Amino acid sequence: MMRLQVQGYELLTQANKLQYSFSGTGVNVASAMTKLGHDGYLVTKIPDNPLGDAAISFLQRLGIVRHFIARGGKYIGMYFLENGFGQRASRVTYTNRLESSFNTACISDYDYDLIAENADIVHFCGITLAMTEQVRASMKTLAKKVKEKGGLVCFDCNYRPSLWDGGYAKAKSHYEDMLALADIVMMNEKDAMYILGMETKKASKLEQLKDLIPKVAEKFAIQTVAGTHRQVNSDNTHSLQGYMYKDGAFIFSENISFSVYDRIGAGDAYTSGILHGELAGFSSEKTVRFATAAGMLACTIVGDTPMSTETEILSAMIGKTEDIKR
Prior knowledge:
Layout: E1 2-6, E2 18-22, H1 25-35, E3 44-46, H2 50-61, E4 69-71, E5 78-82, E6 91-95, H3 112-118, E7 121-125, H4 126-129, H5 133-148, E8 152-156, H6 167-181, E9 184-186, H7 189-195, H8 205-220, E10 224-232, E11 238-246, E12 249-252, E13 256-258, H9 266-280, H10 284-298, H11 310-317
Parallel strand pairs: 1-5, 3-4, 7-8, 8-9, 9-10
Antiparallel strand pairs: 1-2, 5-6, 10-11, 11-12, 11-13
Helix pairs in contact: 1-9, 3-5, 5-6, 7-8, 9-10, 10-11
């Protein structure tokens, strides 16, 4: 997608300038993985026009390999970002999604067998799942092929109410299909309750998490479930705690508080931290702490895309605040 952001903390109704970049969950995760030493690919279709050329140039600067990017069509999905401040939340407004080259692509635009042959992990998200029946069918087809080739499937629930015409009722069956194909899932107790319709008598979100996530993992035979709990504090700082459920046990990070410069993409940074930990053979404890630190650092960088290296994240894990590096 193209991200169009107003300056500072202005509203769209106030602003007369927009800064553009290209992003999306797939871009963010693939780029973050390249910073952590992996090869990151993006499976998408981009317009064959100057706008598409600009997107390709941006992706290449992020280190994303373009082998599986198809070209064609006229449009790219866009969203407008207004940064929140204090009690006013940030706001994202999507536009032109369904007419985009990606959402009008055909199955024949992608070589699924070739992609599956090259994938150690393929990452999908609920934002993409909310698009069209054709896109949903493509996601499920690719997930099945990757599993057949021995790769892992990661699915981030990422439910966006504004994208689902029909709400949770329409989304549920598609989420269940993806969860049944997934090895690694990013979700929390709200996803279990609202998307899957699961019930719990627990009151606090932590107890709800501990009650529901093991049931989800067992029902869909998911090896790893991970996510975060975030809190916005009265002084405009944020607090973040990561968790992972694996091998029948929960592992939690410390609850860390930090200042936020740009919070969009922090969840994708956390996801990339989990994936890197799994690929690198980290212990579950180290993986959760690494992912949480990655999510925190993403909030200190402008733009959606995580830019931190493994060394920088490991340094942040021990609470080391660097002075000027010379």
